Amino acid sequence: AMRHLPYFCRGEVVKGFGRGSKELGIPTANFSEQVVESFPSDISTGIYYGWACVGNGDVHKMVLSIGWNPFYKNIKKSVETHIIHTFKEDFYGEILSIVITGYIRPEKNFDSLAALISAIQEDIEEAKRQLDLPEHLKLKEDNFFHQPEGKIVNNH
Ligand code: ADP
Ligand code: MG
User: Fold this and answer.
1) Which residues form ligand 1's pocket by a CB distance below 6 Å?
2) Gap from CA of 142 to ligand 1 centroid (Å)
3) Keywords on this record (predicted)?
4) pLDDT in tens, 25-63
């Protein structure tokens, strides 16, 4: 799972498939199919953490899920970023830049919504702790986040 890390990626935020993440208090910004296809095909599904920035805004901590996309009958992957920050507005259509720096756990099925939410809360706490470590913190300042707006660079 760590072989491709750190992984830099930039792309447009598109409408997801309405799993109701926002209703759970954990909105996830979905990348387009084209961006997902540009990921290494052997990258493990599961929960990761790293840094994210919308447009040329501030860089925030994030947790990310790489999972199987139910919209495509689970033959294609989906990549969804939950930014650990409260935004005033949605940002569909904007360019999201991320660097994935670490891996937390594989995908799991949960017996209840409550169990799912508490697992995600733990993932968020784990991401926050890990990202404060110097080796992860240094990527927050990476030049990748200060490149001209709109320039799309995958696998930089
Ligand atoms: P969808 O199924 O369209 O992805 P979600 O319920 O997952 O819907 O909500 C995702 C949208 O919420 C994002 O595309 C973005 O515009 C908005 N959003 C607001 N705050 C955040 C955040 N902290 N992290 C990710 N997305 C956010
Ligand atoms: Mg989503």
Assistant:
1) 13, 15-19, 21-22, 27-30, 82-83, 85, 87, 90-92
2) 24
3) ATP-binding, Flavoprotein, FMN, Kinase, Metal-binding, Nucleotide-binding, Transferase, Zinc
4) 899 999 999 999 999 999 999 999 999 999 999 999 999
In-domain check, residue 148: no
For residues 96-109, give the mean pLDDT.
Answer: 95
Among this protein's residues, is 80 annotated catalytic?
yes
pTM of the predicted model as reported, rounded to 2 decimal places: 0.93
Q: Does residue 145 lie in a domain region? A: no
Does residue 149 belong to any structural domain of this protein? no
DSSP string across 77-140:
EEEEEEESS--SS--TTSEEEEEEEEEEE-----SSHHHHHHHHHHHHHHHHHHHTSHHHHGGG
Domain interval for residue 100: 7-135
Any idea what DSSP says for residue 99?
Answer: E
Q: Which residues lie near ion ligand 2 (Cβ < 5 Å)?
A: 16, 21, 28, 30, 80
For residue 154, pLDDT over 60 is answered with no
